[in-house]
Amino acid sequence: MSTPLQDPGFFRDPYPTYAALRGQAAVQKLPGSGHRAGYVVTGYAEARQALADPGLSKDTARFFAGKETGRDVHPAVSQNMLATDPPDHTRLRRLVTKAFTPGAVDRLRPYVHGLADTLLDAWTPGEEVDLIAGLAVPLPVTVICQLLGVPAADRDAVRAWSTDLFAAGDHARTDAASHALADYMTGLVAAKRRTPDDALLSALVAARDGDGDRLTERELVSLAVLLLVAGHETTTAAIGNAVLALLRHPDQLELLHTDPGRIDGAVDELLRHDSAVTVATWRWAPEPVRIGGTDVPAGSPVFVSPGAANRDPARFADADRLDLDRADAHAHLAFGHGIHRCLGAPLAHAEVATALRVLLARFPGLRLAVPADQLRWRHSRLVHGLESLPVVP
């Protein structure tokens, strides 16, 4: 699909592209051919509707049945919980919901705080460091690996495969990563079956073995892969985006230095201002559906952009401005909306807030080490995030 969402400038700064698209229509057909031609949703009201619309399906296996894609994505990746509709989605989500409730996340906060402190112990004031490699990557990946029960020795490999999954346009790389992750998780499930522990993956294995009607073996591996990848990729991007936004808006950064108690509330505005999810995961219309004022024909893919919706001036006043006093920032769609809203939203929110709290307390003079226009951004249409963020603590 050749679209404005593939232009090199889009990966650096998607917001001019979003504004131009939204100025034409909040829902419109993108150029393209074959089964990947579809509609992009950039308006807030329309995105919120589409994200919760039962008339749109996430069953990608059904969509691609009989179509030649030229891809070799492992089913554990291509047919995970995010690619299902009720009742399967409801059943699978229920199995893991309790691990990500606000109460469960509150119990994790001391661990997350201690981990952030330990990571920052390696930083030397006045010496340049990459905030992505030194904090934004290891914090969430370590937390989700700890939660699932992934051995420490395997975490670097897991992180590398996960990064490869989001390499836009490099199908060979993403397809290979999907098999590597699925094969690894299949082996880890077998290991947990032999030697259970008190981590989440062992609990899922027990659910599978205790009542096979609740979870098939393929679903077990797929769910484990999804939790592993979704549990850190977007949070890594969110931490980097949040720190960069604050460094580029020193007046807003000073508000947090003056009153660190505002950090939890500020996270919502930071997520709204620069969403880690630029285009939500695949949806399509099994039957004709109307989104906003646009009729979407049956069989059409629908690409909902939370990043665009969060900058819609029809919903947020002065939408391009970072304003930590914004009263309605919590209405952002960075975590999605409806039954597919991000399961790990409470954990991601807590990780971003904790990273900021520890970082600003430890290094109040933090500054960029290079001009912002020299920063390198990941080439991914799904995740908007930095490849690196050189800073001087």
Write up what this structure looks like.
The chain is α+β, with helices and mostly antiparallel strands. It has one domain: Cytochrome P450 (Cytochrome p450). Helices cover 50% and strands 6% of the residues. The chain contains 18 helices and nine strands. It has a four-stranded mixed β-sheet, sandwiched between helices. It has a three-stranded antiparallel β-sheet with strand order 3-9-8. Strands 5-6 form a two-stranded antiparallel ribbon. Strand 5 and strand 6 form a beta hairpin. Helix 7 packs parallel to helix 18, helix 10 runs antiparallel to helix 11 and helix 14 packs across helix 16. The radius of gyration is 21 Å and the shape is globular. 46% of the residues are buried.
Please summarize what this structure is.
With 393 residues, the chain is α+β, with helices and mostly antiparallel strands. The chain is built from 18 helices and nine strands. The strands form three sheets. The protein has a four-stranded mixed beta sheet, sandwiched between helices. A three-stranded antiparallel beta sheet has the order 3-9-8.
